[in-house]
Structure formats: structure tokens, C-alpha cells
Amino acid sequence: MALLASRAKKAELVVLSELLRKKMLQENTPLIRNRWNFFKGHPDVFVAAEATAWACRNLPITFPRDYKLDGALQQLSLEEDETNEDVCSSLGSVSFSNDQLTHEQAVAMFQKLLDAGILKSATEKRKEEFVADKSFFRFAVDDSRCDNFIRSIVLGFRIYSCAVDPESRLFQRVCSSGQFVSDESLQACEIVTWICKHFNIQREAATNLADHMLQNSIIGPVHYRVTEFMDNSYFYLFKMEFKMVSISHLLEDASYTDVPTPQRKCPSPPPTYESLLKSDGSVTKAALLHPEAPFVKRDLKVVPDGCGYGFCVRGDGPCFIKVVDPDSPAGKAGVKEKQFVTNINGKSVLDMKYRGVEDLIVEGPGRLEITVLEQVCMRNRGESGTTCLGTRYFTSSGGGQPVRRL
């Protein structure tokens, strides 16, 4: 529940920042633009002092509740909170009237966006305090290193803001199993087309951005359970509700003080070959199949003579060649001791015990097609000669039983 609450708070702050950013760009001289400092260019930044003064002149404390949203944004529902007036009267620090922001309130607003990682300093990597001076800041979405969660919310909000406009005709009615689902569904291919048009990128890159929205639960599929967004005819719905928090609510609600970006669990590093071996050094099936396993695959064909094939196997999955007669058909075909057996006549035997492998060979068609994994010998660093990795791996599981020659 804490993670869900954190996601919701983060989304509300991102939506507020997107409306602020849009309004700052709509000025006759946009506050957000390319600027220079000490002969170094900083794209898409604003000056803290200018932004603070602009907010005091142009933003009421109730923004964006009374913000005249143009076009599609007029249809967005604003967050309703009937307790705001009670909170305001009890705390007495913020007025819910149409009064303009004070300097302190404007700084506090930008500070909360900075704390949430939605604003970034353009000159200092870890600036923690918003001061109304000549410092350069930029919205995280304008930063090339913006995290995917913020970028996905902004992208989803922009698509939704456009889609609610009837003239866009993005939203479609969708049913599932004869039951009405929603009037606000979008086809995957339409989402990709919209991103391509507004960001001037190729469909592959647009599909990747849409996939970030799917992975961050901004959108979700209607009919099918999918793990990756594809440029196809599947329908998607917005799973995130784009609520708008007013500045007054932002300044009063202590839960907005520090809203961290929800962190996904980092996947565990892949296991190493050595970690998949048994405690006594014996090779396991998983170790054999590891991409860094020191083995080479060999496909061999053996035709028996009057005495048979000339080798025997041991092991309980995987099995290995225990003994081989070098002058037998198997020895001449390339079968060697300590090779692991993976396939017999096209059938995988990695999970079979040696008795089952023996029976499969004996009951075969009279000609053996065997796939083995042969260890690669590696030269020890700092020592002369060679050594085969894992010489301890081969232990007989047959106990004192006689060896069966095949």
C-alpha cells in the first residue's frame, strides 16, 4: 500500500509540474529556453529567480483548479477534497482563495518538486535546496537522464490529454467477451503513431517508450496478458488516474514533502558456472547448460561391432562416460572418458539416471547417435602444462557394482 500511495503522490506532482512547464513555455518570452553560463550552454532551463517572480505574478494558490485548460485538458477531472477548507482554517498558513502565491510559497512549491526529483539542477548534480537566485534548473522530463517512471507519467498524461479531445478520435469503445469494457481504450498502433508524430522518432523508438508506460503500469492491456508492448492491434487502457493537486494542497499536505520514485526490485545477477556446481564439485545439469561452462558439444555416430559399442556410463543425471575402450567403435568415433551425455538417438537424457541411459542405448536401432559435452582443457596461469577443469567432478555413483560394457 505504501508503494501504491507513493506512486499516486508522485503522479500528482508530475501532472502539476507538467502544467507548470506548459504555462512557463506559453509566455511571450518562454521562461524555459536555452541559456548560457560561463560560455557553456544549458538547454531547456529556467532561472530560479525568474521562475519564482513569475509564479508570484501569475499563479493563484488554487492553481491548477482555476487554470483555464485549453482543448482536451478542459475535460480532465480535478481532484476533489472536501476537507481542504477545514485543514486551511485549522492550520491558518495557506489561504484557499484566489490570492496570488507569495514568494515563500513559490519557493516552497519548487522545493517540493526538487525533493521529489521532478526538478533538477542544471549545474550542480546534487543540489538539494531551491533558492531564488540565478541558478539554472530544468524539469526532469527535459533531462536526458530522466528516470523512466517520471517520463512514462508525462508521456501518458500528454497522450491522455490529447485523447480526451473528441476531435483526436484516439479513444475507442472496446468490449470483451460480449461485455462492454470502456470508451477510453487505445490501440497499440495508434499509441505508437501518436508518439512518432509528436516526438519525431521512428516506430521502434516509439514502441520502446510505450513499453516503459506498460512496465510502469501507466497503461495496461484489455484482452491479453502481455509482458512487452508491441506495435500491433491490441487495445490498452490507462491504469493510472491523472489527478491534479492544487498548490494549496501541495503546501499543506506533509506527505508531499519527500516522495521518492518507486524503485523496482533489481534483478539478481545471473549465477556463475562455479555457483551451480555441487558442494563436492560435481557437475549439475544447470552447470552444464550455463553459457560459460567449459565444455564443447560433439555429435558422434557409433556403429557397433560383434562385441558392442565399447564403453559404459555412470551418473544420475547428468550421466558421463566412465570407461571407453580406445580400440572399440566408440573409441574410434570420438567417445572419451569424462564426457557428459546429453542426447541418445535424438532424446535428451540430461535428467536420466545411468541405468535408463544404458537401456536406451541397448534397446536402440543398432546404430548409436550420441551427443556429448567434452571439457575444454585450459592452461593454468603461472604453471606449465595443462589441466582439465573439474577433474573431481567425475565420481562413480555405481558403488561396488560391476561396470556394464555397452
Helical percentage: 25-40%
Q: Which sequence of SSEs, written as H and E, runs from N to C?
A: HEEHHHEEHEEHHEEHHEEEHEEHEEE
The biggest beta sheet reads: 6 strands, antiparallel
State which percent range the strand residues make up: 15-25%
Tell me the number of helical segments per DSSP (H or I, 4 or more residues long). Answer: 11
| Uncertain stretches of 5 or more adjacent residues | 66-97, 378-403
Number of strands: 16
**Quaternary state of the chains:** single chain
Your description of this structure?
- The protein is an alpha+beta fold and 406 residues long.
- Helix content is 30%, strand content 20%.
- Strands 9, 10, 11, 12, 13 and 14 form a 6-stranded antiparallel sheet that branches. The protein has a 4-stranded antiparallel sheet with strand order 1-2-4-3.
- Helix 5 (148-163) crosses helix 7 (203-215) and helix 6 packs across helix 7 (203-215).
- The radius of gyration is 33 Å and the shape is elongated.
Summarize the structure.
The chain has 406 residues and is an alpha+beta fold.
Structure keywords:
11 helices, 406 residues, 6-stranded antiparallel beta sheet, alpha+beta, 4-stranded antiparallel beta sheet, elongated
Which helices and strands occur, and which strands form pairs?
Blueprint: H1 2-25, E1 33-37, E2 40-47, H2 48-58, H3 84-91, H4 103-115, E3 119-121, E4 136-139, H5 148-163, E5 172-176, E6 179-187, H6 188-199, H7 203-215, E7 219-221, E8 235-238, H8 247-252, H9 285-289, E9 295-302, E10 311-314, E11 319-324, H10 329-333, E12 340-344, E13 347-348, H11 354-362, E14 368-375, E15 377-379, E16 386-388
Helix pairs in contact: 1-5, 2-4, 5-7, 6-7
